[in-house]
């Protein structure tokens, strides 16, 4: 019997993760960086699609709890944050990062329950679009603002027969605002926490924030093995896998090219909704998504 066999489950997991991570990095190095970004985008939206499938069994808040708990468990095993010796400003950034991560996911999943996935992602994308425009401050940015505004006008349910709801749009806008805050706090956390420990810390904070409402609304349904399995898959697809792929891509490509590719996310979300969930969008809704994608592409190039 080897010494490795005498280790506990947590020790065996830690020993296996570096080897697994090395294999993943080797595989990622063989893929062009643009391919890694596209894989990350598809992974995120596929995770959102599977999460929406769970809404028939669990309310959105319970699905959010499953996703964040799975992500926190995996990231915590890979990159455990060291809390000793942190200054109060480090704590403030970490706690704020975790809080906004929790609110962003809760509001986005509530929007997802009321809107087609492509529409929800397109509206949420106004958050990073706003950050890009704020960083640029050129006159041409007025064009991107107008395009984004046209997209929202095309999405808005001006008639009672429209397939979207004002409440869903409101939740998506809150998620977009939180995404903007996420970008800023992620940068701040990157300066104060080494590696991915800042994100790991934020995920743990998010679990604490989301757990009361998620467990209350989910109840005993959260204990079903197949629900836990899908929740783990959603956590992997929505957080762990895309984050790892994006980090690998950013090491090998300029940031502005990365941002341009990420601008395709609303269109990919609409395609995932069509194929996986059978969500057929009207021509007007596709036009809205194209407007927001074009505004994001333009703002990214300008900034």
From TrEMBL:
<feature type="transmembrane region" description="Helical">
    <location>
        <begin position="197"/>
        <end position="217"/>
    </location>
</feature>
<keyword id="KW-1133">Transmembrane helix</keyword>
<keyword id="KW-1003">Cell membrane</keyword>
<feature type="transmembrane region" description="Helical">
    <location>
        <begin position="57"/>
        <end position="79"/>
    </location>
</feature>
<dbReference type="InterPro" id="IPR050638">
    <property type="entry name" value="AA-Vitamin_Transporters"/>
</dbReference>
<feature type="transmembrane region" description="Helical">
    <location>
        <begin position="283"/>
        <end position="300"/>
    </location>
</feature>
<dbReference type="InterPro" id="IPR000620">
    <property type="entry name" value="EamA_dom"/>
</dbReference>
<keyword id="KW-0812">Transmembrane</keyword>
<feature type="transmembrane region" description="Helical">
    <location>
        <begin position="91"/>
        <end position="109"/>
    </location>
</feature>
<feature type="transmembrane region" description="Helical">
    <location>
        <begin position="115"/>
        <end position="135"/>
    </location>
</feature>
<comment type="similarity">
    <text>Belongs to the EamA transporter family.</text>
</comment>
<feature type="domain" description="EamA">
    <location>
        <begin position="167"/>
        <end position="298"/>
    </location>
</feature>
<dbReference type="InterPro" id="IPR037185">
    <property type="entry name" value="EmrE-like"/>
</dbReference>
<protein>
    <submittedName>
        <fullName>Inner membrane transporter RhtA</fullName>
    </submittedName>
</protein>
<feature type="transmembrane region" description="Helical">
    <location>
        <begin position="165"/>
        <end position="185"/>
    </location>
</feature>
<keyword id="KW-0472">Membrane</keyword>
<feature type="transmembrane region" description="Helical">
    <location>
        <begin position="142"/>
        <end position="159"/>
    </location>
</feature>
<feature type="transmembrane region" description="Helical">
    <location>
        <begin position="223"/>
        <end position="245"/>
    </location>
</feature>
<feature type="transmembrane region" description="Helical">
    <location>
        <begin position="257"/>
        <end position="277"/>
    </location>
</feature>
<dbReference type="GO" id="GO:0005886">
    <property type="term" value="C:plasma membrane"/>
</dbReference>
<dbReference type="Pfam" id="PF00892">
    <property type="entry name" value="EamA"/>
</dbReference>
């Amino acid at each position: 019997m080897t010494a490795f066999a005498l280790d506990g489950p947590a020790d065996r997991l830690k020993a296996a993760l570096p080897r697994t991570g090395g294999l993943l990095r080797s595989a990622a190095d063989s893929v062009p960086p643009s391919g890694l970004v596209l894989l990350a985008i598809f992974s995120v939206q596929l995770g959102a699609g599977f999460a929406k499938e769970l809404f028939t069994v669990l309310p959105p808040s319970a699905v959010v709890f499953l996703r964040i708990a799975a992500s926190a468990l995996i990231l915590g095993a890979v990159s455990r944050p060291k809390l000793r010796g942190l200054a109060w400003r480090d704590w403030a950034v970490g706690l704020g990062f975790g809080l906004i991560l929790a609110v962003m996911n809760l509001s986005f999943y509530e929007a997802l329950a009321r809107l087609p996935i492509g529409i929800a992602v397109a509206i949420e994308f106004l958050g990073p679009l706003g950050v890009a425009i704020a960083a640029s401050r050129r006159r041409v940015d007025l064009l991107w603002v107008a395009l984004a505004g046209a997209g929202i006008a095309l999405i808005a349910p001006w008639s009672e027969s429209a397939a979207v709801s004002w409440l869903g749009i409101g939740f998506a806008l809150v998620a977009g605002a939180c995404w903007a805050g996420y970008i800023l706090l992620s940068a701040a956390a990157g300066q104060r926490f080494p590696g991915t420990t800042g994100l790991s810390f934020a995920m743990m904070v998010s679990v604490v924030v989301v757990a009361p409402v998620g467990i209350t609304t989910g109840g005993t349904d959260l204990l079903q093995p197949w629900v836990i399995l899908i929740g783990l898959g959603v956590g992997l697809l929505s957080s762990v896998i895309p984050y790892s792929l994006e980090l690998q891509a950013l090491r090998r490509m300029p940031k502005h090219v990365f941002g341009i590719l990420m601008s395709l996310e609303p269109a990919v979300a609409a395609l995932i909704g069509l194929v996986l969930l059978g969500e057929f969008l009207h021509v007007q809704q596709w036009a809205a998504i194209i407007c927001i994608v074009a505004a994001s592409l333009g703002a990214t190039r300008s900034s």
